[in-house]
Design brief:
Low-confidence stretches of chain A: none
Oligomer: heterodimer
Number of strands of chain B: 9
Structural class of chain B: alpha/beta
Largest interface: A-B, 38 and 40 residues
Distance between the termini of chain A: 49 Å
Distance between the termini of chain B: 31 Å
Number of domains of chain B: 1
Mean pLDDT of chain B: 96
Strand content of chain B: 5-15%
Shape of chain A: globular
Number of strands of chain A: 14
Helix content of chain A: 40-55%
Mean pLDDT of chain A: 96
Strand order of the largest sheet of chain A: 3-4-14-9-10-13
Number of helices of chain B: 12
Shape of chain B: globular
Order of helices and strands of chain B: HEHEHHEHHEHEEHEHEHEHH
Low-confidence stretches of chain B: none
CATH topology of chain B: TIM Barrel
CATH architecture of chain B: Alpha-Beta Barrel
Helix content of chain B: 40-55%
Radius of gyration of chain B: 17 Å
Strand order of the largest sheet of chain B: 5-4-3-2-1-9-8-7-6
Radius of gyration of chain A: 20 Å
CATH class of chain B: Alpha Beta
Chain lengths: 403, 266
């Protein structure tokens, strides 16, 4: 079991993590680390965050046994309902924390990257709450695919900058947000949306998202009287999974991170960085990356825009490296099937990201049943945002489930 | 053998700032690199930066991003760059690779140091490898006779400037908070930056980011030991693809004359 306290002073999770950014940003990262440590020890800051999570975000989110799914599969399955948060996903746990910190640091301008737009919406929401101006970078390809989320961000008062460089997706939006931050570092706070980036971001985002696991640990003991045997969560950058894993790290519980296998890991069209496990450095930290022989970053692919990222948070690389967590991968078609299945079983339409976690449990049902498993799934977001895309996808493919 | 230091000393003896142009390897195509380096050499470059294109160049503005994208789309590979550079290094002023940490990490720091040195390269600039993370890379480079060029930014602390006093080659002074690119005016903070660096560091200080005209080169040349010009040169190359070597020569010649005139007046 990995029990060493990570990250260390230099932001290292074993060999992973660190700070690989232009020299211009190093003093800002030092200041952020210092101010974050102070804030986290400040009872006033903690109380304000707690109240916001309760009265604005709607926490604690429920944890409940999924009765029909449990019956169908032959073992207990519990769902942690992050889809019931304000804005419909776990992302807001982190943005409220970071924007609160930005205000404390006297920063007047908020920037963020977004892929499908979930983190952009969550950042715009938190910025609106505090009366701050948010500017969101989004790949122009994503702007086209996610027009409604672009509109949501604008509705919330944010400005959306389409990014035309590279693959015009999340990775390029992140590059552009970092370029903005290097340029405007003196007055700007960069709200990173996952457990990625240079230290202290992977630690800070983990801490803000740990509220998921803290609640879940208390709730499952209350509901079932026992620890779960498995905790299952999807992994893109890895913030929802880290948020639920972290408070269980010392418990005898298997931690399962589910990556997006896209069309299949063997096809090369996937987003499963840990399955490939090639170390590399992108967006400020050393972790596992999708890259070619020259270290050029390769585009990721997943039906789920929230998992469509060619890297993964350094702490996940560390948990894989130490063996404390297991990482598996689920294909687009499996995730889609689970998207339908959970909707019918439980009356809950899961986000396509979360559907990957559900799909793994269905895929492994026989083995889990034999083990008499008690499985806790982090249902990181709701699927309303994906309904339109799934409808179009199935129409094009002639799947006809809705016919 | 401190070829980079010697290049700065030679320029100083002529009473001027060293001129350091940058080109992206593989832009417009890799087979144009020898001709471009020759043109820059003839035009009076004292050190030449050769960019190894990276897919995610987060310290670069639009001009260098596009050049890197195009170079990669044309299939530019690191091994090919090393081969081409090895054929031209002997006839050129000191060559310095500018790239990002992931291609170096992926190639293997030790292997890349060995192959860079064998190709005749004098140093590396890695803008997303800050000094605090650079210890192992620095040591490996140094063992192969390569200088890992330290960077100093307007936001850098005195503590950082003290630390890079142990660096090699020269200090790359980043003139603005921002990314590379063509700018209308030179940041007023350049003189302050150079003075601050010189308080702590004995190495020559070259300034880059945003220098694009002979006037700007002259302005920076008044205070810095070296003037780095990247985006403006690559933009010139992009606008004159068929005659890139001539255009690069003319452009860099103009910058060099501006620095020479400054020397004559001094």
């Amino acid at each position: 079991m990995a029990t060493k306290r990570v990250p260390d002073q230099r932001g290292r999770f074993g060999p992973f993590g660190g700070r690989y950014v232009p020299e211009t940003l190093m003093p800002a990262l030092d200041a952020l680390t210092r101010q974050y440590q102070e804030a986290r020890r400040d009872p006033g800051f903690r109380r304000e965050l707690e109240l916001l999570l309760k009265d604005y975000v709607g926490r604690p989110t429920p944890l409940r046994r999924a009765d029909q799914m449990s019956q169908a599969l032959g073992f207990d399955v519990f769902l942690k309902r992050e889809d019931l948060n304000h804005t419909g996903a776990h992302k807001i746990n982190n943005t409220v924390g970071q924007v609160l910190l930005a205000r404390r640091m006297g920063k007047t301008r908020i920037i963020a990257e977004t892929g499908a737009g979930q983190h952009g919406v969550a950042t715009a929401t938190a910025a609106a709450l505090f009366g701050l101006k948010a500017e969101i970078y989004m790949g122009s390809e994503d702007v086209r695919r996610q027009a409604l989320n672009v509109y949501r961000m604008k509705l919330l008062g944010a400005e959306v900058h389409p990014v035309e460089s590279g693959t015009r997706t999340l990775k390029d939006a992140t590059n552009e947000a970092i370029r903005d931050w290097v340029t405007n570092v003196r007055d700007t706070f960069y709200v990173i949306g996952s457990v990625v980036g240079p230290h202290p971001y992977p630690m800070m985002v983990r801490d803000f998202q740990s509220v998921i696991g803290k609640e879940a640990r208390r709730q499952i003991l209350k509901v079932s009287g026992e620890m779960p045997t498995h905790i299952v969560a999807s992994v893109g950058g890895g913030s929802n999974s880290m948020g639920i894993f972290y408070p269980f790290r010392h418990d005898p519980v298997q931690l399962i991170g589910v990556e997006a296998a896209g069309e299949g890991v063997e096809t090369g069209r996937h987003a499963a960085s840990i399955q490939v496990a090639e170390p590399g450095i992108l967006h400020g930290s050393l972790s596992y990356l999708l890259q070619d022989a020259d270290g050029q970053i390769q585009p990721a692919h997943s039906i789920s825009a929230g998992l469509d990222y060619p890297g993964v948070g350094p702490e996940h690389a560390y948990l894989h490296h130490t063996g404390r967590a297991q990482y598996v991968a689920i294909r687009d078609d499996q995730a889609l099937a689970a998207f339908h299945q959970l909707s019918q079983w439980e009356g809950i339409i899961p986000a396509l990201e979360s559907a990957h976690a559900v799909a793994w449990v269905i895929d492994q049902a026989e083995r889990l049943k034999a083990e008499a498993a008690r499985v806790l799934i982090n249902l990181s977001g709701r699927g309303d945002k994906d309904v339109d895309q799934v409808f179009q996808y199935e129409t094009e493919k002639g799947v006809g489930r809705h016919g | 053998m401190d070829r980079i230091g010697q290049a700065f000393r030679d320029a100083r003896e002529e009473g001027r700032s060293a001129l350091i142009p940058y080109v992206t390897a593989g832009f417009p195509t890799l087979d144009r690199l020898p001709g471009l380096v020759k043109a820059l050499t003839r035009a009076g470059a004292d050190v030449i930066e050769i960019g190894i294109p990276f897919s995610d160049p987060l310290a670069d503005g639009p001009v260098l991003q596009r050049a890197a994208t195009e170079a990669l789309e044309a299939g530019t590979r690191i091994r090919d760059i090393l081969r081409v550079v090895s054929e031209i290094a002997a006839e050129a002023p000191p060559l310095v690779f500018l790239t990002y940490i992931n291609p170096v990490f992926r190639y293997g720091v030790e292997a890349f140091a060995r192959d860079s040195a064998a190709a005749g390269v004098a140093g590396w600039i890695i803008p997303d490898l800050p000094w605090l993370e650079s210890r192992a890379v620095r040591d490996t480079a140094s063992q192969h006779g390569l200088a890992l060029i330290p960077l100093a930014a307007p936001t850098s602390t005195d503590q950082h400037l003290k630390a890079i006093a142990r660096g090699q080659g020269f200090v790359y002074g980043v003139s603005v908070t921002g990314v590379t690119g063509v700018r209308e005016a030179v940041d007023t903070g350049v003189e302050t930056l150079v003075e601050r660096v010189k308080t702590y560091v004995g190495l020559p200080v070259a300034v880059g980011f945003g220098i694009s005209t002979p006037d700007q080169a002259r302005e920076v040349g008044r205070v810095a030991d070296g003037v780095i010009v990247g985006s403006a040169l690559v933009k010139t190359i992009a606008e004159h693809r068929d005659t890139a070597e001539d255009a690069a020569y003319q452009f860099v010649r103009g910058l060099r004359e501006a620095l020479d005139n400054l020397a004559a007046k001094a």
